[in-house]
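This part of the workshop introduces the protein records we will be handling. A record pairs a protein's sequence with a compact description of its fold. Comparing a sequence with its tokens is the quickest way to learn the format. The record below serves as our worked example for the rest of this section:
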Amino acid sequence: MRDLAVPEFQDMLFHYARKMPFWQDTHRIIVAKVTDGMAAAYRTDPWGIGFRTTHFDINIGSRDSPTTCYILSLEVAEHQRRQGHGKAMVACIEDFCKDYGCDSIEVTASGDVSPKLYAATGFTRIKDGIVVFRKPITLK
């Protein structure tokens, strides 16, 4: 696992986010150091506060699992759905996590679409009721 300061972590995530086919220079990455790791948010809203926009939020590390990346939120705006944006964001997160040194990605999925998205991108369901998926990743 890399030990990066916030600016280096942000630069590294920018590197992967810019590879997404819908990336625009108005998009933002917001990063913060948290108690047990790092947190990051990607927003298509230039102010970084919009909900109902295409975005994701991740947290890397926890007391129980310091090498796991948790997808806290991933949403595609209605007018951008069915264009591969969700899969592109999952791929971005996975590529970033491989380079950062995570050994798995975990997400709690809800709704009708997101469980299908995670299953289609290689995640395995690990809990029922609240739908939790995990994907082990091979380090670079």
